[in-house]
Write a structure and sequence with these properties.
alpha+beta, Helicase, Ruva Protein, domain 3, 7 strands
């Protein structure tokens, strides 16, 4: 009983609040979305290749069954939609795939040139995972009040800072080398891994194969078919990574949303941005800190991180209607420096920011009826690509600042910049 409760609580802490939130109109919802990593963070390649190699050898010579597109009428079973909320019918009593799942498998093998026997063997392992569905099911009725203060404290507490300093000291050479190579601050790299998995302390213990299949075919919200489609795409990428020998889909463990490893990468993020930093011939985001660091930095670089730029510009921002009206809740900066001079006490724009867009973000505390506003640069929005939440990106920056001040024994933080000093 206690093990089950601990599993749920830890999963909520590492995924719901870290790697998997989706923005509402104000980009503040703590509900789950496709982490880029996921992301980003949100969501990381676990590379258990030893069993994968033999599986690939067994299946490469097999001839897949004749595959038909999803819209091919002759092979499309009647009354067998891909998405049915709360679905539990993955495998039939005789061990064969349910008709809809076989149809999807055939389409996948044709689309991605995969051997059908391998795909079938993996999908036959899928089982209903009630905890995944329970954790992803939308809360009925009135949602709880959101509190930036409480959220921030959760990720900038003394324990997480102390563990972050230990992690930084233990892996200092890799961290500093990655920061230099990718031009992403060391503190940001450490903070993202700290927020995502407490520096690898908890990476999730759900079957990724089960999680993605349950959410892809049985997502528990009938009004969100696009979410189910996203998880099916992640499942397809997981199977492709398995075929390529980059992870073992049969044994991969992760969050209840399917994010894996120290940086909590989703399968698509592994395909696109994961890095083998140690030149060992494979990527291992579960055990290789250099791989995890380089993958996070590579992700940020591909999502707009700008070297030698802060995350926030330090300026007094009053909490009034005019400011609130300029918070659009989006995930990209849209305001020019000149636009902001009319509502904020800003000097003439520095040369480097003459053409740069900025964004006003809001961090509400509905419990205490307060709201904090910040002026964010493109680097803030790069972090929101990891996890689509203002809360998340701000917590990463604040944890990074706390770590940076302690590690370098200084009062200032490079992630905040005074307008006059830019």
């Amino acid at each position: 009983m206690w093990l089950t409760l601990s599993r749920i609580i830890l999963s909520l802490g590492t995924c719901l609040f870290a790697a998997c939130s989706t923005p509402t109109q104000t980009a503040q919802s703590e509900s789950l979305s496709a982490p880029a990593t996921s992301v980003a963070a949100q969501m990381s390649e676990g590379t258990d290749k030893k069993n994968k190699t033999s599986a690939r050898t067994r299946t490469q010579k097999s001839t897949p069954e004749t595959a038909q597109p999803l819209n091919a009428a002759p092979n499309k079973p009647k009354n067998s939609p891909l998405f049915v909320p709360f679905r539990q019918d993955f495998v039939q009593e005789d061990g064969q795939l349910s008709p809809y799942l076989k149809q999807w498998a055939l389409h996948l093998t044709e689309q991605r040139r995969l051997p059908y026997p391998m795909v079938e063997e993996l999908l036959q392992q899928i089982r209903y995972e009630p905890q995944v569905i329970q954790l992803m099911t939308p809360t009925k009725g009135q949602q709880g009040k959101r509190s930036w203060t409480a959220y921030r404290e959760r990720f900038t507490d003394k324990t997480r800072i102390d563990q972050g300093l230990s992690f930084w000291q233990q892996h200092q050479d890799s961290i500093e080398e990655t920061a230099r190579h990718y031009q992403v601050p060391a503190s940001i790299l450490v903070a993202i891994i700290g927020v995502e998995t407490i520096y690898g302390g908890y990476m999730g213990d759900f079957s990724v194969l089960n999680a993605l299949a349950n959410l892809g075919f049985g997502y528990p919200d009938p009004e969100r078919p696009e979410r189910a489609a996203m998880f099916r795409n992640q499942l397809a990428d997981l199977i492709e990574l398995h075929y390529q020998g980059k992870l073992d889909a049969s044994t991969a463990r992760g969050s209840f949303a399917g994010a894996m490893g120290l940086p909590q990468f989703m399968p698509t993020s592994i395909k696109q941005w994961a890095i083998d930093a140690e030149d060992k011939g494979h990527i291992d985001l579960f055990r290789s800190v250099p791989d995890a660091l380089a993958s996070v930095a590579n992700f940020l670089n591909h999502h707009g991180w700008q070297a030698q730029r802060p995350v926030f510009i330090e300026v007094d921002i009053p909490a009034n209607d005019q400011i609130a009206a300029n918070v659009d809740g989006g995930l990209s900066p849209t305001l020019a420096w000149a636009d902001l001079q009319g509502i904020l006490d800003l000097p003439e724009p520095p040369t480097a920011y003459a053409e740069q867009k900025l964004g006003l973000i809001d961090l509400p505390d509905q419990v205490n009826h307060t709201v904090e506003y910040r002026l964010a640069t493109a680097n803030f929005f790069a972090v929101t690509e990891y996890n689509r939440s203002y809360f998340y990106a701000s917590a990463v920056a604040d944890l990074a600042c706390a770590l940076e001040r302690r590690h370098y024994q200084r009062q200032s933080c490079s992630l905040w910049a005074q307008p006059a000093a830019m």
